Amino acid sequence: MKILKKILIAIVVLVALILIVALFIKKDMAAEREVVINKTKQEVYDYIKMLKNQNNYSKWARKDPAMKKDYRGTDNTVGFVSAWESKKDDVGKGEQEITKIDEGKRIDYELRFLEPMESKATAYMTTDSIAPNQTRVKWGFAGKINYPFNFIRLFMDMEKSVGDDFEEGLNNLKGILEKQ
Questions:
Q1: Closest CA to 120 of 50, 27, 55, 26
Q2: What is the mean pLDDT of the segment spanning 80-91?
Q3: Are 111 and 96 in contact (CB under 8 A)?
Q4: Which residues have a Cβ under 8 Å from the Cβ of 52 and sit 6 or more positions away?
Q5: CA dist 139 to 4, 15, 63, 76, 124, Å?
Q6: Domain holding 88: CATH number?
Q7: DSSP state at residue 144
Q8: 43 SS3 class
Q9: DSSP alpha helix (H) spans, 35-157
Q10: Which domain holds residue 147?
Q11: CA dist., res. 75 & res. 105, Å (int)
């Protein structure tokens, strides 16, 4: 009985310690990556403005080709929603909504993750012409990891992980557009 009591006390102390440490770990996170695509700004923007096209280059969309997809509204307009549902935990269930469009320059999104963990984030894609046939595309993300789950930041570099996924997606995008 004494051993069981000591184990229980140790578990309670460990959980309390984790909860206290999590109070001091930042909750905000952001990631951004960019790529230069050898196409005109208009060609690049015309492709990325269609949210459905992310299925062709996004790392997350490529993780589960069998995921269920649903769309609401008119693509490339504010309010368009692309929803997904996957049996794979690293893809999960959620939706992405276009929230703002700066025609030819920037598209903003709200991401709503529903499973395996509920959270919200914002994302964006921008295009900048750096030469007549070269366009810099940036893909960025900002979100929060809610307390006490922010504790995982001690063990995972979320900015690097998300950023690396963006980088892979942008390289996929580059490959697709430069073959056209």
A1: 27
A2: 90
A3: yes
A4: 71, 75, 82
A5: 52, 37, 19, 17, 6
A6: 3.30.530.20
A7: E
A8: helix
A9: 41-48, 54-57, 59-63
A10: 2-179
A11: 17
The DSSP code for 79 is T
Helices (H) and strands (E) in the chain, counts: 5, 7
pLDDT (0 to 100) of residue 150: 73
Strand partners, 110: 97, 122
Exposed/middle/buried for residue 72 (C-beta within 10 Å: 0-12, 13-18, 19+): exposed
CA–CA dist 158, 26 (Å, integer): 12
Residues in the chain, total: 180
Nearest partner of 137 among 127, 129, 145, judged by Cα: 127
Confidence band, pLDDT 50/70/90 cuts, at residue 20: confident
159's tokens: 């900015």
**How far is residue 42's CA from residue 34's CA, in Å, rounded to a whole number?**
17
Which carries the bigger pLDDT value, residue 105 or residue 119? 105
Alpha-carbon torsion angle 33, 38, 43, 45, nearest 10: 10
Are the beta carbons of 110 and 101 closer than 8 angstroms?
no
Q: How many domains does the chain have?
A: 1
Question: What gap in Å lies between CA 154 and CA 22, rounded to an integer?
Answer: 9
pTM: 0.81
